[in-house]
Specification:
InterPro entries: AAA+_ATPase, ABC_transporter-like_ATP-bd, ABC_transporter-like_CS, ACT-like_dom_sf, MetN_ABC, MetN_ABC_transporter-like, NIL_domain, P-loop_NTPase. The chain is α/β, with parallel strands linked by helices and 339 residues long. It is built from 12 helices and 14 strands. It starts with a strand and ends with a strand. The structure holds adenosine-5'-triphosphate (ATP).
Length: 339
């Protein structure tokens, strides 16, 4: 649905050049909720502005719905832009217009028939749960309600893609959750592909199926949310993942273990539906190993569970080696940990 090939963007200001994007390659498929995460200055907003063609790349190629943006004439560019809706951190509503008029604005600008506008806006306000706010003004709404209006307005011209630029960053956690639920509904019920940028991994965890991590204009890691959360490779990705997946050994437990270091410590990592009981059953009955669980954590990502166990094991060394091979064969990663 959206493809970026070797896309670079360099800004020149007062003899200073900033390489905001450096040969970015990205493929966003139809139906994805694709999250781009990175710290401030990583290049996320630049990426979104290029996809929306508010700015042009310095080099490289962007295609949206199979069309090369650089090759489109102004008319076709306007047409493709209608396929892209956008919502913003600060909502960008017109304060002097009612909620109905705000949502209707893209349709009024496109000179849509009044009856069609009436029906479409009424349907959208009901969809975002604001049917009773049509005559209100933005100043009478909460942040979460304003973002709902932003979403309804973005959907007015029936886009195929929705770009979300830090759409929940100004909202409290509970409101964030309700807006993310609404975005998921937009994706599922209207089949709209979503490209979302954020600096919060919890947002990616809750609704995205794919993620790209950006740093200093580069994409340093990308993949399915489950694989990136389960096996982050780059230190920056690990830092982001640790904000939601609490799989590191807590400090207090480390301190206790340091004082009593007779036994080796092992970390077991797994993604999926293994249950603790079955694994410990095998370790005990098949390999005659006595297991003490020191710490465990489970995190739900989409429909999967990431699980980590820190264990100490008593038994024959030979049996341990056989047990670890058995676990690895069953997609359980085993690592000896030094504290
Ligand atoms: N119009 C511009 N002129 C000059 N430099 C710019 C411009 N827009 C962005 N930059 C620079 O490009 C780099 C990437 O900025 P960008 O806004 O894309 O990052 P970001 O990841 O979205 O960060 P934030 O979350 O803080 O917005 C930064 O160094 C920024 O200063």
């Amino acid at each position: 649905m959206i493809t970026l090939r070797d896309v670079s963007k360099t800004y020149h200001r007062k003899k200073i050049s900033t390489e905001a994007l450096k040969k970015i390659n990205l493929q966003i498929e139809k139906g994805d909720i694709f999250g781009v995460i990175g710290y401030s200055g990583a290049g996320k907003s630049t990426l979104v502005r290029l996809v929306n063609y508010l700015e042009r790349p310095t080099s490289g190629e962007i295609t949206v719905d199979g069309k090369h943006l650089a090759e489109l004439n102004p008319h076709n560019l306007r047409e493709i832009k209608k396929e892209i809706g956008m919502i913003f951190q600060q909502f960008n509503l017109l304060e002097s217009k009612t909620i109905f008029q705000n949502v209707a604005m893209p349709l009024i600008l496109a000179k849509t028939n009044k009856q069609v506008i009436q029906e479409r806006v009424t349907e959208l306000l009901a969809f975002v749960g604001l049917a009773d706010k049509a005559a209100s003004y933005p100043s009478e709404l909460s942040g979460g309600q304003k973002q709902r209006v932003g979403i309804a307005r973005a959907l007015a011209s029936k886009p195929k893609i929705l770009l979300c630029d830090e759409a929940t960053s100004a909202l409290d956690p509970q409101t964030t959750q309700s807006i993310l639920d609404l975005l998921k509904k937009v994706n599922e019920e209207y089949g709209i592909t979503i490209l979302l940028i954020t600096h919060e991994m919890a947002v990616i965890q809750q609704i995205c199926n794919k993620v790209a991590v950006m740093e200093e204009g580069n994409i340093i890691e990308k993949g399915s949310v489950v694989s990136v959360f389960g096996k982050p490779k780059h230190p920056t990705t690990k830092g982001f993942v640790q904000t939601v997946v609490k799989n590191e050994l807590p400090f207090s437990i480390k301190t206790k273990l340091k004082k009593n270091q007779q036994q080796k410590l092992y970390r077991l990592d797994m993604i999926g539906d293994h249950t603790m009981e079955s694994i410990f059953y095998y370790l005990f009955h098949t390999f005659q190993l006595q297991v003490t669980v020191v710490f465990t954590n489970m995190t739900e990502i989409q429909d999967s569970v990431l699980a980590v166990w820190y264990i100490q094991v008593e038994g024959e060394e030979r049996n341990k080696q056989q047990a670890w091979s058995f676990l690895v064969e069953n997609q359980v990663n085993v690592e000896e940990i030094t504290i």
